[in-house]
Amino acid sequence: MARIIYVNGRYSPYSQASIHVEDRGFQFADGVYEVCFIHNRVIVDLDGHLDRLDRSLGELRMAPPMSRPALIHVMNETLRRNKIRNGYTYLQVTRGAAPRAFSFPGDDIGSSLICMARPHDEKKNNALAKKGINALTVPDIRWARRDIKSISLLPQMLASQTALDQGCAEALLVEDDGFITEGSHSNAWMVDHDNRLLTRRADNSILRGRTREVVAATIIELGLKLEERAFSVDEALAAKEVFVTSTTALLMPVVQIDGKQIGAGVPGDISNKLRQLICDAYGM
Ligand code: PMP
Predict the structure, then answer these.
(1) Both 106 and 149 in a single domain?
(2) Is the same domain home to 111 and 138?
């Protein structure tokens, strides 16, 4: 089956879809994106993702490409045309196509909108979560507005590839002061020896992950201790448990960092319990 992509008002097979070479996404990475998880044809946490999209657009002074109901229609139609039952959908909005100039083009230039959908193997993700993943620490060379879900992903892409090259599934990004900000495409967490759950405060230094929000609410509901503060690589290495969260990985235990074992070297009880509760919350 040919995969179908929505681009600026048209659903086409990938081979026929195109974007203008002067699209500001291509020229300047002047755009934002969202990834939503699909389970049993339902878009999980849809409002949370679209609220974040609106926020990212607002921070870049970009207008929404269309109304929210119209956007939801495009997402569902893209899922339907690609026959996605379990997977994810990707939205990208850029400032549109205009003669290349640093200044913002006038409002008459409409933004560009792309929507695509992919299947996702939930069984594979579940199997990986039973084993846990290895992570590698990599310097965080990103810009100062990481709270915007920007399509400028070059530093994350390079960090992620460096980790993969060393047999690690995620890169943990570290600032000069030795504190972890987040993963290349996830938020980072640790459990200390008093069973306190630590994750960085959602200021400009990290992306406010939707999964991070859901996990934080679950921790509070369980009556566990949540501390939103930065933690260092040394603290993570000495932690009882470490895990990362994201829309596509859900909650993934980290059992090794830079070749050093974390805790017992297997996914810990708190990570396993929280992952199960997230799966329950998402109806999985
Ligand atoms: N941080 C970064 C840098 C990310 O790219 C992502 C996922 N795109 C996340 C955190 C996790 O966010 P979410 O739970 O909304 O997928």
Answers:
(1) no
(2) no
Same domain, 155 and 240: yes
Q: What tens digit of pLDDT does each residue of 106-160 get?
A: 888 999 999 999 999 989 999 999 999 999 999 999 999 999 999 999 999 999 9
Indicate whether 87 and 109 sit together in one domain: yes
From 120, 153, 179, give the residue that closes a domain.
120
Which burial class, exposed, middle or buried, applies to 121 when counting CB atoms under 10 A from its CB (0-12, 13-18, 19+)? Answer: exposed
CA of 247 to the centre of ligand 1 (A): 7
Condensed to tens digits (0 to 9), the pLDDT of residues 85-115 reads 999 999 999 999 999 999 999 888 999 999 9
Q: Whose CA is nearest to atom 5 of ligand 1?
A: 185
In short, whether 244's Cβ falls inside 6 Å of ligand 1 is no
Please tell me the distance from the alpha carbon of residue 169 to that of residue 180, in angstroms, as a whole number.
16
Q: Which of 149, 225, 260, 273 is catalytic?
A: 149
Q: Is the CB of 246 under 6 A from ligand 1?
A: yes
Name the β-bridge partners of 92. 33, 114
* Residue having the nearest C-alpha atom to atom 9 of ligand 1: 186
Dig out the tokens for 100 from the structure.
């290349």
Nearest atom within ligand 1 for CA of residue 213: 14
Q: What is the CATH number of the domain that holds 97?
A: 3.30.470.10
Task: Decide whether any atom of ligand 1 lies within 6 Å of the 182 Cβ.
Answer: yes
131 and 271 inside one domain: yes
| Domain span holding position 17 | 4-120
Q: Is the pTM of this model over 0.85?
A: yes
Between vectors from CA 91 to CA 282 and to CA 39, what angle results, nearest 5°? Answer: 20
For residues 171 and 233, state if they share a domain: yes
